[in-house]
Amino acid sequence: GSTCSSVCGMLEPGAAVGPTDTASGWLGLRVGIDVGGTMCKICYLETPQREDEPPSETITRERLRVLVNDPETYGESGIRDRAKEFDSEELGGHIYFVQFESRKMEKVLEMFRAKSALDASTVVYGTGGGARKYATKIKDLLGISIKHCDELQSLIFGINFMLHHDPSALYQVDPESFLTDGTRITPRAAPKYPYLLVNIGSGVSILRVDADGSHTRVGGSSLGGATFFGLCCIVTGCATFTDAMAFAERGDSKNIDLLVEDIYGGDYEEFELPGSTVASSLGKLVKPEIREKAQAEDVARALLEAITNNIGSIALLHARAHNCEKIIFAGNFLRNNRISIARLSFSMDYWSEGRRHANFLVHEGYLGAFGALLQGRDITHSPSVSPEPPHPIPTTS
Asked: What is the pTM of this model?
């Protein structure tokens, strides 16, 4: 897995440490969960065995290790994100990242119970609506009481920890090369405050985050990842989000979207709009002859781009309105979603005339669960650089 600079160091598996030697100062096993409307994300902190550790905790740790490393644990749609795992000296252990569809939550809980992989000594920090929805079930099946954490506060804790401890946690892309080979660009400048956080999950939440870590929800949208997935299920018959993305990747939205050139026969020169600009998403489907020959893959691609374009437009308007030069897009919707990442990058650069760029996080989707885990102790979450004093942003951008 990746290694976070300045905080990470290898901890020997099974190595024992003294009762007060852990870097984190935590006792017991810690798990953070973020149960959204579509996906459940799990962040597990595996710490070294302590000299004074109860035998039951040692057994649970070993069972958890076996469960995490067993491919059968994840079924058809579950994922262990090995590439995002890291060792943290400050947290005192190894961080695992796992996810599965929220609709399979009860099956997953039954599996944990059958494997005796968690016990009452395990501390679980939960965020997201599903953490409350399944709290009673978790208590009944596993004997564990969830410590509930604020959803947006958890997300910001997770993001600011990553930005502070890992310079490569934030990246930008060139739209064309990213779609071709996935090349990422690490921004040269540290994050500037205030920044706009656009969290794309089942829906969309937009927050302004200030230098002291405080935040304000300034907007959002009900059109998010679940909107795309739900519509794709109807159009394509797909069963998983991964399948929906596969349909979109094979499609061509130009066969479905109504373009400027379809209306004007070319560019709209008065407003400097290229003919390839989308005038109406899925607009060609108003014609019966287009509907009859429309391919599911093309509709899926048009749906994905329509929802992404809408999010990008709203984000830029909020960035201007709330004087945020930096825009960070996060959320599980962006995981392995090159199309939306490239589209947001192009839109931010084009419509702001190069004044603002889309920024993304390597650990997108998991930062709510990770931030919930962090709320169990007092650590530094804000970037190590001194924030720049606020300054006005030109209203013409």
From this structure: 0.74
